[in-house]
Amino acid sequence: MSTIKLFNIYHSFLIKKLYLIVYILLLFIAVLAIMIGVNQMNQKDDNFTIGIVDKDQSKETKLILNAIGDGQSLGNDLSIKHYNEKRAHNLLEKKKIDGYFIFKDGMTKAFYQNGELPIVVNTFDTQSVESIIILQLTDSVYSRLMLSMGGAMSYASLYPNATENELLTMMTDMLFAGLNRSGSFDEEPVKVFDTLSYYTISIYFVSIFLFFFSIFSILKMNQKDALKERLSMFHFSYEKLTIVRGIFSLGYTILWSVVGLWIIIKFLKPEFEMYNLNALIMSLSYYLFFLTCSFIFIDIAFRNAINYILKIGLTLVILLFSGAIIPIIYLKGLSGGLIESLPFTIVYNQLLELFLNNYIIDLHPMFYWNILIMIGLLTTSIYWRYRQ
């Protein structure tokens, strides 16, 4: 029987069981949608908006405001806005800003006379995390302002003949250097994965496996009954049927992989950028290749109880040792690096880094060896069955 006829038989059977595919698709889409929805609801706005009220209106306070700018020199998630006192108070009451500073009238004179900077900090309360952060930020900024202004006073004492323009230039340099938090050191942020985003990628990863497994099993429902008698007289019929069933399942699983990928990129809005699309396609292709070959190999080489045991084992490996459910960091060292070299673990790590960090990690040394081993096992089993 030709391969085309086998495809037609499977296709006609699958049409009759179309409701099963629809149920599976709706289930996976619903789970992905729930995870993405919960992830969006739990995303908090980490940006701080702080107002500044300048009641002193001196040259020094204007220099300070210019040095602070929009707040980016103090923190990446900080926004500084200039208001009058009434406007700032109203916005704080409505919780549209997190707090505001007041440069009191006569602040500059007080500094030159007493060495103090009378800055008032207003927050909605004193117990919330936002208020504590603002107060800590104020303490940090205040300390750097005092150092900068103190440096300016020292310069004026050491160079009494300096012109006003020279003093202003020096003070500007001192303020910009003092208030720029990255001026004295380079930041190396430590990135951690958001838990909900992590498990959303995990659900997508596992759903590809479950979808393939489901289609592969649904198609096998017809194999032992309607097709058994029809194909029993043909040599190598069972093996050919299994290969076609695997390829047919692969085609439908590719469609789900594309749909699921679109849902994640569209609604989860991960860090992934389209210029890394080739790396993403390569990772998904690697994953689909191993799923297809693994199931074909198990069905061709093993029968009855061993067949079921191996499929259960494969399921457990993908669920427990890929990193999809238990983060791989907790499994390191348990098997001397064996778990990290599994093809499904390699793929999951690549997908995780691509989606959540837009980063391509170095290929594991076993990446290509796994392909060669899988091809060798599959080729050997097909040849062995063909020779029987």
TrEMBL record:
Membrane topology value: Multi-pass membrane protein
Query: Principal place where this protein is found?
Result: membrane
Transmembrane segment boundaries = 20-38, 196-221, 242-265, 277-302, 309-331, 366-386
Start and end of every ABC-2 type transporter transmembrane domain? 18-377
Keywords for this entry?
Membrane, Transmembrane, Transmembrane helix
The domain of life for this entry's organism is Bacteria
What Pfam families does the database record attribute to this sequence? ABC2_membrane_3 (PF12698)
Compartment annotation: Membrane
* InterPro entries recorded: ABC2_TM
Indicate what this protein is called per its UniProt record: ABC transporter permease
Q: Which organism is it from?
A: Mammaliicoccus fleurettii
Q: What is the lineage of its organism?
A: Bacteria, Bacillati, Bacillota, Bacilli, Bacillales
